[in-house]
Amino acid sequence: MSEHEEHEDGDPLPECPPMVSRDLKSILVTSVLQLEEIDVGLYRGKNHWIPLSRRLFGGQIIGQALVAAAKSVGDHLYAHSLHCYFVRAGDPDIPVLYNVDRVRDGRSFCVRSVKAIQRGEPILVLQASFHLDQPSPLMHQFSMPEVPPPEDLLSLEDLIRFVLGKPDLEQKVKQGFNKVLANEVPIEVRPVNPLQFSREVTTEPKRMFWVRARGHIGEGNMKLHVCVAAYISDYSFLGTTMMSYPAKRVKMMASLDHAMWFHNTFRADEWMLYEVNSPWAGGSRGLVQGRLWRRDGVLAASCCQEGLIRLTAPKDRSKL
Ligand SMILES: CCC(=O)SCCNC(=O)CCNC(=O)[C@H](O)C(C)(C)COP(=O)(O)OP(=O)(O)OC[C@H]1O[C@@H](n2cnc3c(N)ncnc32)[C@H](O)[C@@H]1OP(=O)(O)O
Fold it and tell me: What is the pLDDT of residues 27-77, one digit of tens each?
C-alpha cells in the first residue's frame, strides 16, 4: 500500500482545486524544510501533509533532520550519505525539535548525528556524513532503464481521477486520493506503468515513476536539493513490497529505517526517475531499494529502507 492508498475513514469527495503553478516556490523550501533556530544546534520544524495513518511522514522527518545537520557544516561539504531509524511514531499535532551533535570534523569528511524529538523523546535518530567534492579516476554507474519521458505519461492526479470514477471504491481510499488531488502532497509523480498504480495487476515488486518537488526551487543550492530528495525518497517507497500480492488488508505499515547515498548533483524540482524494487519480505518486515536517476541518465542517489508490515488476520473460515 503506498502513501496515496492509505485506508482510513474519510469525508465525501471535495471539489478538486486547480494544480499549483510550477512558477510558485516549492512549499518544501518555503516552509517544510525551513527550520527555526531556537538554540545552538537546536531547531524546530513545521509539519506539513499528514498521511491518513496520522503518524508524521517519514520523509518529512528525514528531510528536516538533514537540513538541521547541514546547518553546521561548511558550504564546501555535501551530504554523501545518511542512515536513520524511526523509533517512535511522529505526532502531527506538535512540532518536531532537531538536536544536532557535531560528531567529528575532519579534513575531508564531517559527521553529524541528529535526534528528532517530541515530548522529550526521540522519534528518529539520524547520522549524516558530509564530504568535500573530490575528483576521482574511479567512476562507474549502472545504465538508467529506458522508459517513456514524463511528458508522455499521465500524472498521478489523472490516474487518481480515473480510479475515483470507479463505483465500488471504498470511502477510505477516496480520502487518501483526495489528499493528493488537494495538492497537500508537495511532490509530483508520473508512474511509468499505470496498471501497476491502480493495483489491477499483481506484478514482481518493481516499479518506476518520474518524480519531482511540486513548485520551483531553482539551481544553485545543492544542500537544499539533497534535503528535498531525502523528503521525496520516502514517498511510494515501502508500498512496493505489496505489489506481488492481491489487495491485502494492511493493519500497520511504517518505515523502520532509511538510508541514502548521494552520488551526483541534481535538481529535485526537475523530473527524476525513481526505480524501486523490493527484493525481500518476511517476518512482518519488507525491504525496498531505490535509485533516483537524473533524466540525462546520471545516477543521482540510491536509497534503501526496511519497513514493518502487519496485515489483519485472515477470517477463520472453518466456522462458516
Ligand atoms: C511512508 C511510510 C512512513 O513514512 S511511516 C513513518 C515513519 N515511520 C514511523 O513512524 C515508525 C516509527 N516507529 C514506531 O512506531 C515504532 O518503532 C514501532 C515500529 C511501532 C515499534 O514497534 P513495537 O516495538 O512493536 O512498538 P510497541 O511495542 O510500542 O507497539 C506498537 C503497536 O504495535 C502493537 N504490536 C507490538 N507488537 C506486536 C505484534 N507482535 N503483533 C501485533 N501488534 C503488535 C502494539 O500493541 C502497539 O499497538 P497500539 O499502538 O497500542 O495499538
Answer: 999 999 999 999 999 999 999 988 878 899 999 999 999 999 999 999 999
37 C-alpha to ligand 1 centroid (Å): 31
Instruction: Tell me the whole-structure pTM to 2 decimals.
Output: 0.90
Q: ipTM greater than 0.85, yes or no?
A: yes
Residue 234 appears among annotated catalytic residues = yes
Q: How many residues does the chain have?
A: 320
Catalytic site includes residue 305: yes
Residues with CB under 6 A from ligand 1: 3, 55, 57-58, 86-90, 234, 238, 254-256, 308, 310
CA distance 240 to 277: 6
Give the pLDDT of residue 196.
Answer: 81
DSSP 28: I
- Report CA(310)–ligand 1 centroid distance (Å): 9
